[in-house]
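Weekly sync, protein design subgroup
Attendees: M.S., D.O., the rotation student, P.L. (late)

Item 1: inverse folding check
M.S. brought a backbone from last month's batch and wanted to see whether the design step gives back something sensible before we order anything. D.O. pointed out we never logged the input encoding, so this time it goes straight into the notes. Structure tokens as presented (460 positions):
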């Protein structure tokens, strides 16, 4: 084992970026006790050390062997080097699984925490441009799972037509990434989305109290979230709750979010945690205390659920880089006992897959689609304790698993401080840029410390 000048263990070398100028610089993963840091030096802007991992399971023990599949089509060549050649380029080591289409930059919230840096002034791609994106994705190895994103995609009146168009061109899984405000109050709009073929809703859901929303989103929102979930249940649309975890704001609410998700089955199909990452303009470098790493999320899950969910229930992904995500799966039995059914492979948005992105893609499509028994919330909650579900037979058990299984997963996005280019090259969640290139999500959202972007159109 190599050691550095501080006599600390060097686990491996990689490349990263300078947060000041975004130059590619060499980096090392350095273990100090059960913590792992990314150390890097920019000849111009100095030394940077950022936490990557804190706690158990150890970083060195987390990764598993995975099957990587190169993208079948590369739209760009190797020219300036990673991460400046995205397209995808031939150096990319993993095939696309999910593709985000940013259908608008408008939003009906002004969150302090926002990937999209959304505002109300930007134009948006018209449906013909979106059709070109769909056709480009098909020619690049599609169909892929589509995530309709923004901004706030539900501000578009023609979102149902966008879904119907995608379906007519051969795409079969559509996920809506939303804050839920429109779903909470526009029943007819949700009906149109469902009829057009929407598969599931990824609902921004940061906590179970209004204090959390006030801090993260700038206003109280819990009532709207509840109404949005109820409306999805009415339309048999499966919901995945998506909390952005901000240390000191909602990291003590992790257990309550999971309990809420269990109560809201079968309409709620999963919880997908996103530890906060730092994009945009920052007056100061984020401290390690401003971050929560994957093992800390797992430890909080175990502690805050009183051991109902355990660290050992969770696995690294099989498709994207092992340090990008975790996943586990549970069935809530009719006697109220929660059973883990995690298998040794999986991925960030496919918590129960065999291996590789195709299977990952299928898993998401199957697992997070419509909650079959999601006609209304009261029925959902009553159903959990229903005595007429007999789990003595395999059929009954499978039926139970179909209605009362919950996926729990998380993805730790990378920012200019903690980015590891080896991880980025194995990214399988991609964004279509305005000029129709396929860009790995963390490269698309990356900014330097002044807020200057690499790929996302910037107003700065
Ligand atoms: S992130 Fe992937 S596509 Fe982009 S430059 Fe690096 S290897 Fe190429
Ligand atoms: S989006 Fe970022 S964290 Fe997720 S798979 Fe891609 S590189 Fe990893």
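Designed sequence read out in the meeting:
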């Amino acid at each position: 084992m190599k050691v550095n000048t501080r006599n600390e263990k060097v686990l491996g070398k990689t490349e990263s970026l300078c947060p000041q100028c975004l130059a590619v610089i060499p980096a090392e993963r350095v273990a100090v006790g059960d913590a792992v840091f990314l150390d890097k030096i920019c000849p111009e802007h100095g030394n940077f050390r950022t936490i990557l991992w804190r706690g158990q399971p150890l970083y060195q023990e987390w990764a598993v062997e995975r099957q990587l599949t190169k993208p079948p089509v590369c739209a760009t060549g190797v020219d300036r080097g990673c991460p400046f050649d995205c397209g995808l380029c031939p150096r990319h080591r993993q095939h696309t699984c999910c593709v985000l289409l940013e259908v608008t930059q408008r939003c009906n919230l002004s969150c302090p925490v926002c990937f999209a840096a959304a505002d109300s002034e930007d134009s948006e791609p018209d449906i013909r441009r979106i059709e070109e994106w769909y056709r480009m994705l098909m020619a690049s190895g599609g169909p892929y799972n589509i995530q309709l994103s923004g901004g706030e995609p539900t501000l578009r009146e023609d979102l149902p037509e966008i879904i119907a168009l995608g379906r007519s061109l051969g795409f079969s899984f559509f996920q809506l990434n939303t804050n839920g405000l429109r779903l909470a109050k526009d029943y007819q709009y949700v009906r149109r989305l469902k009829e057009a073929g929407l598969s599931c809703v990824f609902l921004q859901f940061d906590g179970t109290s209004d204090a959390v929303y006030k801090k993260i989103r700038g206003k109280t929102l819990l009532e709207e979230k509840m109404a949005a979930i109820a409306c999805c249940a009415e339309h048999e649309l499966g919901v995945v709750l998506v909390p952005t975890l901000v240390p000191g704001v909602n990291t003590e609410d992790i257990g309550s979010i999971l309990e809420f998700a269990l109560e809201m089955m079968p309409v709620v199909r999963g919880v997908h945690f996103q530890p906060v990452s730092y994009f945009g303009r920052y007056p100061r470098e984020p401290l390690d205390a401003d971050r929560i790493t994957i093992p800390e999320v797992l430890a909080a899950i175990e502690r805050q659920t009183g051991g109902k969910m355990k660290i050992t229930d969770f696995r690294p992904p099989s498709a994207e880089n092992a340090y990008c995500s975790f996943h586990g799966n549970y069935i809530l039995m009719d006697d109220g006992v929660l059973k883990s059914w995690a298998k040794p492979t999986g991925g960030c948005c496919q918590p129960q897959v065999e291996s590789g992105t195709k299977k990952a893609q299928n898993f998401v499509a199957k697992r997070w689609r419509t909650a079959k028994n999601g006609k209304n919330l009261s029925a959902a909650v009553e159903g959990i304790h229903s005595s007429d579900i007999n789990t003595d037979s395999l059929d009954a058990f499978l039926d139970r698993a179909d209605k009362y299984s919950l996926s729990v997963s998380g993805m730790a996005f990378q920012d200019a401080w903690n980015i590891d280019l080896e991880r980025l090259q194995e990214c399988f969640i991609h964004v279509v840029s305005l000029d129709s290139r396929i860009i790995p999500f963390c490269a698309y959202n990356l900014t330097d410390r002044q807020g200057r972007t690499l790929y996302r159109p910037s107003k700065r």
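Discussion: The CA atoms of residues 318 and 345 lie 5 Å apart. The two ends are 44 Å apart (CA to CA).
Action: P.L. to compare against the previous round before Friday.
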